[in-house]
Amino acid sequence: MARRPERLTDALYFLAPQLLLFLPRDRPGNGDADKRIAPGDRRPTPTHRPAGWSHRRRYLRGSDRPL
């Protein structure tokens, strides 16, 4: 059984994990739900990058080993 905290600082250390539960945090399964676009709004950029984009990016940033 856990001992009872004698001082206020002991009580804070004792309760800190329970207090962390009330902090807002990004839930792992949420994804882009908060960034979802309202119906009728146009997406500013295409949903996916064009084919070969990641391959061409290596040339654009000037690396000596592009492939």
From TrEMBL:
Biased composition range(s): Basic and acidic residues: 24-44
Region ranges (Disordered): 24-67
Domain of life: Bacteria
Protein name (record): Uncharacterized protein
Species of the source: Roseovarius aestuarii
